[in-house]
Specification:
The chain has 336 residues and is of the alpha/beta class. The chain contains 8 helices and 11 strands.
Length: 336
């Protein structure tokens, strides 16, 4: 199966080889997942999940009781687009009415789509595919989106890419220009998206988000690891205030004589962000994905490791390691 996996950046967690299912130790360290800085391939999925004929067909909406992870680049983008468009529909249609009556909670969302190439050109194409025809239903005028890029190079690449879609209601700015006061965000922007922001830009992001209140804000594939958020100090709460509405992480369970693929997955349905669980699914021998565990909040490495080692130990005398696919523009997810 190893030969079938696309070339990816991985993190291997090794533990003593258990002969039987082991109990979770009182203290289990969770190694950080640093952001991979260079990749040279397309958006990546385990090829066994792409090619198995028995892989369940995808629905545009995700099911809470039976989560269906994407099995292709197009499926991942479509699911994430559906999540965002349905989640934004209510606040965008009710914003002007309710803001006069009471102070609103600003809608803040986060999306994590696995990518194997974080170059400006690749991210620009991803943004084009995602935002040029985002199907948000709103009465009256179309929805105007502003994408804030981490640097001027990314902004220029996006402007070039979006020339092929001149009718799209998308504006492009770079965070450094906004931070220096050289550029102001248009009052016509209905939704702001921080695409691939750097950890060093979190303070500026908070300032921009406060200025945009009560308009919705989205963090799309941030360039920091989940473990790093605890080091953000006072800004940790700000980063954690963004609800994850779509996230996908491929994983590999490696035993002495076998190796199995799986995913960690979250996808909200019907625009309702509360109550959605994180699902851990593992590929069966027949190629189907089996749900093995769910979590109310984003599971730590230790929690996933515990579930998968015990699962493998029931079928194999020795389980060697769990490798997490690292071909995300971000490994981070939010609080729920």
């Amino acid at each position: 199966m190893a030969s079938n996996l696309l070339r990816i950046h991985t993190k291997t967690i090794r533990t003593p080889n258990p002969a039987t299912p082991f109990s979770l130790p009182k203290t289990l360290s969770s190694p950080s997942l640093p952001f991979p800085t260079h990749h040279h391939s397309q958006l990546s999925f385990p090829s066994t999940l792409l090619n198995k004929s028995k892989t369940p067909s995808l629905s545009p909406l995700c099911s809470l009781s039976s989560p269906t992870p994407p099995n292709s680049k197009e499926a991942a983008i479509q699911q994430a687009k559906t999540c965002l468009s349905t989640t934004l529909e209510k606040p965008l249609n009710n914003l002007r009415l309710t803001s006069k009556l009471k102070k609103l909670k600003q809608p803040r969302f986060r999306i994590e789509i696995p990518v194997a190439d974080d170059s400006p050109e690749s991210l620009s194409q991803l943004a084009l595919q995602f935002f040029r025809d985002l199907p948000i239903k709103r009465k009256g005028s179309p929805v105007n989106t502003v994408i804030l890029w981490p640097d001027i190079t990314s902004t220029e690449s996006a402007l070039k890419a979006f020339k092929s879609s001149p009718s799209s209601q998308v504006e492009h700015l770079d965070i450094p220009s906004v931070a220096n006061g050289n550029t102001r965000i248009s009052n016509n922007a209905d939704v702001a998206v921080f695409l691939a922001p750097e950890p060093s830009q979190v303070a500026v992001m908070k300032t921009v988000v406060d200025l945009l209140y009560p308009r919705p804000v989205v963090i799309f594939n941030p360039k920091w690891g989940f473990e790093e958020e605890a080091e953000f100090g006072e800004l940790s709460g700000f980063v954690g205030s963004f609800e994850v509405i779509f996230s996908f992480m491929g994983l590999e369970v490696k035993g002495l004589l076998s190796r199995r693929n799986g995913v960690i997955f979250k996808c909200v349905r019907n625009g309702v962000v509360s109550g959605e669980k994180w699902a851990v699914l593992v590929e069966e021998e027949q190629g189907e994905l089996k749900l093995v565990s769910t979590f109310k909040s984003r599971p730590s490495i230790a929690e996933v490791e515990y579930v998968l080692y015990n699962l493998m130990a029931m079928n194999s005398p020795v389980t060697k390691s769990v490798k997490f696919f690292k071909d995300f523009v971000s490994n981070v997810t939010g609080k729920k």
